[in-house]
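Model: Ready when you are.
Researcher: Fold this.
Model:
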Amino acid sequence: MAKLTIPAEEWMYRGHAACPGCGPALAMRLLLKGLGPRTVMSIPACCWTVIGTPYPTTALGIALLDNPIESTGASIAGLRAALDALRIEDVRVVGFAGDGGTADIGLQALSGMLERRTDAIFVMYDNEGYMNTGVQRSSATPQGAWTTTTPVEGPRRGKREAKKEIMSIVLAHHPAYAATVNPAFPEDFVRKAEKARDARGPRFLHALTPCPPGWKFSSEETIELGRLATETGLFPLYEVEDGVYRITRRLGTLKPVDEYVRLQGRFRHWEPEDVRELSEEVRRGWERLLRLERETAPAVFPKPPVAIAAA
């Protein structure tokens, strides 16, 4: 019998209200497999408050707290302080927020939590828009993507601005641990959740979570899209500990980004030139990541020669 590579226990239950093929639901399920039940989680206004936490019900087997969309970082800092005052040390404190509640409205609280070295985990599930309220653009929406607030009509060609590099902002705060995760690679996801669980200090996980209605793709293609996001180099999988980068999904030749783009209706208006520009951007980003991995790798010094006494 094959050995299970991820825990069999489930801490996310049936009966939730997620859409078919929901990336954030898959991310939550894998996250809790890595964290376990000794977890208290704070969730702001987002898809997940509708998916699994409408009062008085819950789809999760952990302690939960709802908080305003802008204050996840402050909420988990308060939870950590309360647990410390009670001398409860074996409970992980986690914030689980969308890209809007992390990179936009919640950025100030996230920055404060990281700068003050709060012993907690902040997870950004990135479905690249405000999906719960009708598919509006966020700062994490890719450049050129359609949303209801970045329509494609006349000279307008979707979102004009580039996707915010949230990991660069987080890493500027020198967290204890930071990593990208993708539900399409469950073993890698759970392993990083376990590392975040066991670390101390501020930790951050950036999870790519495809959204079928927001990205306009068929719900059975969630895993395929997730894999393509990583295999094209658009969303590389890596982790950073003590300033050292390590790529956890190594790629030889990057797959063409067109394989990823053409599956999504939000990019239906793209021309070949748009794909070429994205391909060049991805190539530069991948080369930069390879360079960071090389430059931050711990130095390996040769062993000094062993002195041999004269006969």
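Researcher: Now this one.
Model:
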Amino acid sequence: MNNSMEKLHEECAVFGVSVTSEEAVGITYNGLLSMQHRGQEGAGIAAMPMHGNGIVCHKDVGLVGEVFTEKVIAKLPASNLAVGHNRYSTTGSNTRQNVQPFVTEFLTGRIATVHNGNVVNAKTLKKQLENKGLDFAATSDSEVISSLIAYQTILKGNIIEGTIAAVRELEGAFSLIIMCGDHKLIAVRDPNGFRPLCIGTNQYGCVVASESCALENCGFEMLRDVRPGEIIVIEDGRIIEERMYAESRERGVCIFEYVYFARSDSVIDGLSVYEARCNMGRMLAKEHPVDADVVCGIPDSGLEAAMGYAEESGLPLVQGFAKNRYIGRSFIFPTQAQRENAVKMKMNPLRYNVKGKRIILVDDSIVRGTTAAKIVSSMRNAGAKEVHMRISAPPFLHTCHFGTDIDDEANLIANHLSIDEICKKIGADTLGFISLDGLEKACGKCSLQFCTGCFDGNYGIPVSEYSKQDLEG
């Protein structure tokens, strides 16, 4: 994990579209913009011309709007079929070679693949493919997946059967969209359902995306989630095949999608992210009440939990911070003192609302405690009488093997300090984390069971024989 980071990041967003018009590239661009929160290090789009089976791909490091200028978009073909990807690297290097989509040419065709998640046996699979004569240009598990699909397609003589054979060899998290040379779009979700994937439709065709907010923003109505262990084939804007290639496993969907990763207007596996976060706040108020004057949410993912806490506790909800929305990842801090004060540069306390008050601050997580300490300090400097921290996730104790950048348990403050010691270190008057049971109750409307491995070590599949550092998207 990057030592400059306090917030966790999710590995990426995937998007694919099959329509009867020639607007696939524009729709994909808008879909990626809608899911920029899932990855800010790289973006790519691969498109197939209406007539022909070639694939044109453009990708680079940077935000969607930086990678896809008007000039770049104008050079992409008029297309009814496209896939796109936003990337956030975890331990893998942030280079153009690792940005998706991956376009793989083989004897009988070509595919473009986009992937969200982390395949824990990718290193083993890569060695097997190298022994068969395949070459690799990147250091990503996603390239391994694309090559494996191509290899199995040659053996099976059919892209659908080849894809099924390939994904049955994968262990770990994968939500995949594959664009094929025969103008098909294939969507696949791993048997655990670790990462979200959903389908939307309108009169012009179908889209597949990591989050439902992208469907709606592009003018498509949510049809349903792709089921864990399911493959869906789309052609000419309509679903032509739906098949379970594996039995759904007992648990999988990442509960942290609801806490932090997903946009609040998304619905994942039947549960509104907004509703889940409000429920977390209500549960926090029940588990960790405190005598205070006002409740403040820390932007952005702490805001809904703060609303729930305020409703349950009967305390007023006030805006605690003014956020500078124009400071991005490239903001320059020329001195060490400014770098240490970066939190205040991006998010400044509203003195009018907090001065002389006993404040309950609600946030989504504490990783190392560095950011939390700065936020508490800024509240006190703004005149807050007391500062009580409430966290809508349990303490992080374990690494994640499926696409979240918790790469070393030694980096997690909860593995070194007790709750009281963390409270003292960040300078709060009191500190309360939601219980794992409370979090699961808050997300009770989800149609799937959860992976809670980062909190309790219960991952849903064996991971002890694999290293998170081997290959990641």
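Researcher: Key takeaway?
Model: Residues 141-156 form the longest helix (16 residues).
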